[in-house]
Write a structure and sequence with these properties.
heterodimer, A: 365 residues, mainly alpha, 2 domains, 4-stranded mixed sheet, 13 helices, elongated, B: 294 residues, alpha/beta, Alpha-Beta Plaits, 6-stranded mixed sheet, 4-stranded antiparallel sheet, 10 helices, 14 strands
Chain lengths: 365, 294
C-alpha cells in the first residue's frame, strides 16, 4: 500500500476536527449578508436608543404653567411660569394645550390650587411638592425602574441571541441534510464531532456578537455621559456571561437535534417550534413578572430561564452568594444531559431522509 | 486488503444484509454489482462507518476500523452533495483537512486534483454555479482530495457523459495502480465489465458471486463453443452429444454435453482440414449476473 500520504496526514484529533467544523460555521456566517445586515441593524438600533435617551434627558423642558394674578408659587421650582390676569384666560390657555396646568389663588394651606385639564398634571404637582429626605439601610435593594431596564436588557440579549443563532444552527443542520453532504461528513468524522463543532462555532459567534454590542454600548454610554447606568452591573454581568454560555449551548443542542429531524428547510418549524417556545417563555416572563420575587426566584433555577433570572436577582441583591452556584450547577447538569440526548437524536436522524423523523424513533435509534 | 466478514443488517424487521463477506484487494478495481435495493449502498455505508452493522466486522489489513482508520477512506455516496454556496477549492481544502491533511498538503492536493480534472478555472466558483458535469467532477474530487488509502464509490458513473466516464475511469485506475483498494458500485454492467479486475455480485442482501472477473467468467462458462473451419461446418450437427445453435459456412456455434464431446468435435475438425478458431465462449458480465441473481 502506498505510503506517500503518511507525511501529509496527521493523526486523528477530536479537538482539531471540532475546531475545523466550528471555523467553517463561523466563516460561512461572517460572509453571510443576512448576518452582517442583522448585526449592523442591531448596532444602529442600539446606538440610536442610547443617543435618544441622552437627548431626552438633556432636553426635558420644565412643564409650563399659567399663574393667575394673586397666586404665588415658590421661586425655586422647576416650572416655566407665565403670568395671566384672570382664571378665564388661564383656562383658555389650558384648553388650548399651551400650558400643562394653571395655578389659581386659593385659601388652601399652600395659598394656591393647581388646575389641570383632563388629568392630574403629575409633573407640575411633583415640582410643587415638598419631599421628605429618605435614607435606606440597604441601598442596593432599591432597583426599581433601573431593575426593570436591566431585567429587560438581560432578557432581550439572551432572547435575541438564542433565537437568531438557534435558528441559524438548525438551518445549518438541515442544509447539510438537504444537500446530502452530510453523508460525506459522517464518513469522515464522528457524528458527535460534527455536532460539537457546530455548537462551538455558533456559540463563539453569538458571544462575539453580544460582546461587540456591549462594548459599543459601554463606549456610547460613556461618550454621552450616561455611564452611571453601568454602575452596579459588574458582578451580575460576569454571572450573566457565564450563564449565557451554558444556557446558549443548551438551546443550541436542542435546535441542532430538532433541526436534524427534518430533511427540508421548509419543514424546519415543525420540529423546532417547541424549542423556540423554551426561548420565548422566559423572555415574556421576565418582561411581565420581573417585580414578582416568586416568579423571578423560580426562573433563576429553571435551566432555560436561569441565564435571565439569576443575574437579575444578583443585580437586585436578592440572591444569596451560593444561589448562582447552585443554579449554575443545575444548568450545567441539564446542559450535559441535553447534549447527550440531543446528540442521540442528531445521530439517529441525520441519515433519514424524506419523512420527518418521529421523536420516539430518533431517541430509540 | 479490505475484508468484509459476515456483515448483517436489518431495518426493523426487514433484513437488508445477510452474512455479507468479500474482499477488496489493494491495487485492484473491484466492481460491486447488484440491482436496486440489493444492499450495495447499505454495505458501503457500513464499511464507511456511517451505519453500524448488527453483526460482522470490517477490517483493513487485519486491523478493525475506527474513526482514525476510516478517515483515510475516500467516499463518494450515491446521494451526491456538497455545500452549494461554498467555493470549489475552499470546499476541497476543507474536506481534505477534515480528513487530517495539513493546510499546506490540503492546498497542494486540491490544486493538483483540480488540474487533473480540468477544473482549475472553476476553483473560485461556488458549487451551485458549476455546470452539472463539473459538479460531478467536483464530487469525484471530494472523494480523492485527501489521497485516500481506500476508495469506495457508490455509482460513480451514473449521470456522467461518456467523456466524463473515461476521465473518471482513468483517475480511478490511476489510484488503483498506486496500490490502493478501489470498490465501486454500478448498475452499468458494460462499464463494470470494462474496468474491474474483481467482481462482487449482490442480490437480496446476500453475496451471490465474488472473485477475479476472469475466474468468474471461467466458472460460469457454459459448454458453448465456437468453431471456425476452412470447409463447411455442417457436419458438426451429426456429432454425438452436440447441439448446434448456428452454422454459417465454416462457422459453427454449439453446446456440448461434456467437454469431451467438444474435444471430439475439435479432433474431427482438425482431421477434416484447417481450424482457424476453436474457443469456449465466456459469458458476459450481464449473463453471469442474470444467472447468479436468479
Amino acid at each position: 500500500m502506498t505510503t506517500a500520504h503518511d507525511t501529509v496526514a496527521r493523526p486523528y484529533s477530536t479537538g482539531r476536527s471540532v475546531w475545523l467544523v466550528a471555523q467553517r460555521e463561523i466563516m460561512v456566517r461572517l460572509r453571510s449578508v443576512a448576518f452582517l445586515v442583522s448585526t449592523g441593524l442591531m448596532l444602529v438600533l442600539l446606538l440610536g436608543s442610547i443617543t435618544i435617551s441622552a437627548l431626552v434627558s438633556v432636553n426635558a423642558a420644565d412643564p409650563k404653567v399659567a399663574v393667575v394674578a394673586g397666586a404665588t408659587i415658590p421661586g425655586n421650582v422647576a416650572l416655566d411660569a407665565q403670568a395671566v390676569e384672570t382664571r378665564e384666560e388661564a383656562e383658555a390657555l389650558l384648553r388650548a394645550g399651551d400650558v400643562d396646568a394653571a395655578i389659581l389663588p386659593s385659601d388652601a394651606p399652600l395659598g394656591f390650587t393647581v388646575l389641570g385639564d383632563d388629568s392630574v398634571p403629575t409633573r407640575v404637582v411633583q415640582a410643587l411638592s415638598v419631599l421628605p429626605e429618605v435614607e435606606l439601610l440597604d441601598a442596593s435593594g432599591a432597583a426599581g425602574f433601573i431593575g426593570y431596564i436591566v431585567a429587560i436588557g438581560f432578557g432581550l440579549i439572551f432572547f435575541l441571541s438564542a433565537m437568531t443563532f438557534g435558528s441559524t444552527i438548525a438551518q445549518s443542520v438541515v442544509e447539510e441534510k438537504q444537500t446530502r453532504i452530510v453523508e460525506i461528513l459522517l464518513a469522515t468524522i464522528p457524528t458527535r464531532v460534527l455536532l460539537a463543532g457546530k455548537i462551538v462555532g455558533t456559540t463563539i459567534l453569538a458571544l462575539g456578537q453580544v460582546a461587540l454590542l456591549l462594548a459599543i454600548s459601554i463606549v456610547a454610554l460613556s461618550v454621552t455621559g450616561q455611564s452611571e447606568l453601568l454602575l452596579g452591573l459588574g458582578m451580575p454581568f460576569v454571572w450573566f456571561a457565564i450563564f449565557f454560555v451554558f444556557g446558549f449551548i443548551l438551546l443550541a443542542s436542542l435546535f441542532a437535534a430538532t433541526g436534524a429531524m427534518v430533511s427540508r428547510l421548509e419543514d424546519i418549524g415543525s420540529t423546532t417550534t417547541p424549542v423556540t417556545m423554551l426561548v420565548m417563555i422566559p423572555y415574556f416572563a421576565v418582561v411581565f413578572f420581573n417585580d414578582n420575587p416568586v416568579v423571578v426566584t423560580v426562573m433563576s433555577y429553571v435551566p432555560f430561564s436561569a441565564p435571565i433570572g439569576m443575574p437579575l436577582r444578583l443585580f437586585t441583591g436578592d440572591a444569596q452568594w451560593w444561589e448562582p452556584l447552585l443554579s449554575l450547577g443545575v444548568l450545567v447538569a441539564t446542559c450535559l444531559a441535553v447534549i447527550v440526548l440531543g446528540a442521540r437524536i442528531y445521530e439517529n436522524s441525520l441519515l433519514r431522509l424524506g419523512q420527518r423523523v418521529k421523536l420516539a424513533e430518533a431517541l430509540k435509534g | 486488503m479490505l475484508e468484509i466478514r459476515d456483515v448483517s443488517k436489518s431495518y426493523g424487521t426487514r433484513r437488508v444484509l445477510t452474512d455479507v463477506s468479500f474482499d477488496v484487494a489493494p491495487g485492484r478495481m473491484t466492481g460491486f454489482v447488484g440491482g436496486n435495493g440489493a444492499g450495495k449502498t447499505t454495505t458501503m455505508r457500513i464499511v464507511l462507518g456511517v451505519l453500524e452493522p448488527d453483526a460482522g466486522t470490517v477490517t483493513l489489513d487485519g486491523a478493525p476500523l475506527g474513526p482514525g482508520g476510516r478517515r483515510r477512506f475516500g467516499y463518494m455516496p450515491e446521494e451526491r452533495g456538497l455545500y452549494p454556496k461554498m467555493k470549489l477549492a475552499e470546499q476541497l481544502v476543507y474536506l481534505a483537512r477534515l480528513h487530517g491533511l495539513t493546510p499546506a498538503a490540503a492546498k497542494r492536493s486540491t490544486d493538483e486534483l483540480l488540474a487533473r480534472l480540468s477544473l482549475t478555472e472553476r476553483a473560485n466558483d461556488a458549487i451551485e454555479k458549476l455546470s452539472l458535469g463539473n459538479q460531478q467532477r467536483a464530487q469525484i474530487a471530494a472523494a480523492l482530495v485527501h489521497e485516500p488509502d481506500v476508495l469506495m464509490l457508490d455509482e460513480p458513473f451514473s449521470g456522467l457523459d461518456p467523456m466524463a466516464v473515461d476521465v473518471v475511469a482513468e483517475v480511478l485506475a490511476e489510484r488503483a495502480h498506486r496500490g490502493i483498494p478501489v470498490l465501486f458500485s454500478s448498475h452499468q454492467l458494460d462499464i463494470v465489465e470494462r474496468l474491474c479486475d474483481d467482481l462482487v455480485i449482490i442480490a437480496d442482501g446476500t453475496i451471490r458471486a465474488a472473485g477475479p472477473r476472469e475466474a468468474l467468467r471461467e466458472q460460469h462458462a457454459t459448454l458453448r463453443y465456437q468453431l471456425q473451419t476452412d470447409g463447411d461446418a455442417g457436419w458438426v450437427r451429426d456429432q454425438p452429444g452436440i447441439a448446434v445453435i448456428e452454422t454459417d459456412g465454416g462457422y459453427a456455434l454449439f453446446d456440448a454435453e461434456t467437454p469431451e464431446a467438444a474435444q471430439r468435435v475439435l479432433e474431427a475438425a482438425v482431421a477434416r482440414g484447417g481450424v482457424s478458431d476453436f474457443a469456449r465462449q465466456h459469458p458476459t458480465l450481464s449473463q453471469i449476473f442474470k444467472e447468479v441473481v436468479r
